[in-house]
Amino acid sequence: MSKTSAPERGTAMNTSKPTLAEFRAVAHPEGLLDRRSGEHWAGRLYMRRISSRITRHLVDAPVTPNQLTWLMMVAGVAAGAALLVPGLWGAILGALLIQVYLGLDCVDGELARWRRQTSTTGVYLDRIGHYLSEAALLTGFGLRAADLFQQHGARAWLWAFLGTLAALGAILIKAETDLVDVARIRRGLTAVEDSASVPRAAGVAKARKLASALKFHRLIGGVEASLLMLAAGVADAVHGDLFFTRLAVVVLAAIALLQTVLHLLSIVLSSRLR
Known about the structure:
Layout: H1 20-27, H2 41-55, H3 65-82, H4 88-115, H5 120-145, H6 157-186, H7 202-214, H8 222-239, H9 243-268
Helix pairs in contact: 2-4, 3-4, 3-5, 4-5, 4-8, 5-6, 5-8, 5-9, 6-9, 8-9
Protein name: CDP-alcohol phosphatidyltransferase family protein
InterPro entries: CDP-OH_P_trans, CDP-OH_PTrfase_TM_dom
Organism: Streptacidiphilus pinicola
């Protein structure tokens, strides 16, 4: 996942391969898996267990954490491109590449922490990678729904537009979050702690609590969206057309637009800008 900056960089902690327990003690510091906004549920559920077993074999490999972050970007963008493959295989390939993207998102930070090579550049590239990957996935899904290669009749560009709209919403939501720290730092304040902020209005607090319980907003995230796309692909394979893919595009676009507005209001009316 995201890498935090540290004063040390460029010095390997150990040149020999550590045991899994030794590696996790450094690469998974206390609180990493409990971060409310920084750790994906899939990371906690399974990916951190897998990634740490891979990363410990890379501690003396001729690869840098930032190079792995670039590779993460490639996997994420490739997932969006894979959705252009007609039929169920496109949806399967897209979902698999998102899992690779998620794994690399864990591996780069783990390697950086072990080698003490965390950096501001790494944090920046990590954020850009998330922006690009989720936008590519949703845009690719819109093009898939538009039947780009005319497997089910004429192209229908409305669906491509809705997919692009969903991608724009996903980017704006991330920007709304990231710009909180930009605004605070420019005011001479510290960055927001990785914990829940407190809405100042009771109505906003209730709405936020309801949204958090329903978790519908998570559907526009890369992992969740790829699973929805896969489910739609399976349903379309049975149904024989793109009905479920197009339905999913409408759902994702609606969620993205709604969440863009609600997330903005949540931030403006919360304690994060105070």
